[in-house]
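Schema walk-through. Below, the input block comes first and the output block second. Nothing else is stored per chain. Lengths vary across the set, and this one has 295 residues.
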Amino acid sequence: MCKHKSIAAFLLFSALAVPCFAQQESLLIGPGDLIQVDVMDTPEMEQQVRVTDDGSAPLAYIGSIHVGGKTPAGAAAMIEAALVEKKVMHKPQVTVRLQELATQDVSVLGQVKTPGTYSITTPQTILKVLSMAGGLTETADRTVTVKRRRSSEQIKYYVSNDSKQALTDLVMVYPGDIVLVARAPMVYVMGDVNRPGGYAMTTNDERLGVLQVVAMAGSASKTSMQSHVRIIRATDHGQVEMPIRLDQIEKGKQPDVLLQANDIVYVPFSWMKNVAMNTASIAASTAGAAVYVVH
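--- output ---
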């Protein structure tokens, strides 16, 4: 537990300490945005203008240029062309930067501790935005989706348990974006175990074997029939049963079995205590099962 808290604290500090990143050219200029226009070696032509509702930028020397829906680089190219066309400059080198976005909220939804809308006026790292929402819940899927408001592009970012990996290729979140955190895939251990229920697959590789998840369930009871354990798996053709010998796997005489999302590991009771449970009834029992987290 202390190790996980240390990693979380390091990630939070690192996210807050990361300097402002260069703007990504996938970000489009929109109405109400404040843009900075610079012309190389011509400081007197530096200007800041706010984009009008129709997407135009009223600029000195050349008049209004429609920059709405353009990237900063695309807008710069249009301004260069206009300067040449109006014979203001022969070979201008223009840069355009987004200084302030009109929409100043980001929505963080799903499996975070305090989902809601948060105010940001400049691009922020995904880790900082998640920290504003209280961080991920214990049952959160670590693959987070960022949906761009202006382009409808969807970007995936994996919040790794490893701090070095988590800080690599950080995704930037812009005002107006939506951050979606889904629930992690689940597997279930039912029957004669000490702690039956659902287990969130929140390990870095999202790989769980039967031995690991049965151990998380407090191990099979002494009264269980470990020779008649079965995995219930949903397929395109309905639910199928896969019989396994848990007793043989524990002794190393058979290989462990990797589980898939929504698999059910059913450990039968002994002959004396056994209650007839068919596949449908076992699957139905998972609906009200307690949910635990695999660390």
